[in-house]
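Good morning C.,

I know you're traveling, so I'll keep this short. The sequence:
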Amino acid sequence: SDQYILNHCFEKKINYFPLAYNLIVPKAEKPLTSSGFTMVDIKMLHFVGHKPWNLKSNFVATQNNLTQIKFIQLWYKEYIDFLKHSHLKHIYLLNK
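The C-alpha cells, ready to paste straight into the viewer:
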C-alpha cells in the first residue's frame, strides 16, 4: 500500500506519531493490548475497509470483532454530539 511505501522511503527522515494518533480499525485489538493504550487514550481512529457510517457492511464485519463495535459506537457518539452542537448553534443564530 502507499502508506507502507511512504513509511519505507522516509524511514530515516520522519518521526512517527504514537499509536494513539492513528489507530487502525478493525485491526486495533492487538496494538491496544501490546501498547498499553486504552480507548480513552486514542486521539484519532483510522477506519480501514468498513466505514462506520455504512451500516450494512458493518453488520457483517463486526460479528466477530467486539473492539470494532466499540469504536463504531464511539464514532457515532462523537457524530451525534457534533450534530447536536451544530444544530444548536444554528438555532441560536436564528433567534438572535
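Safe travels,
E.
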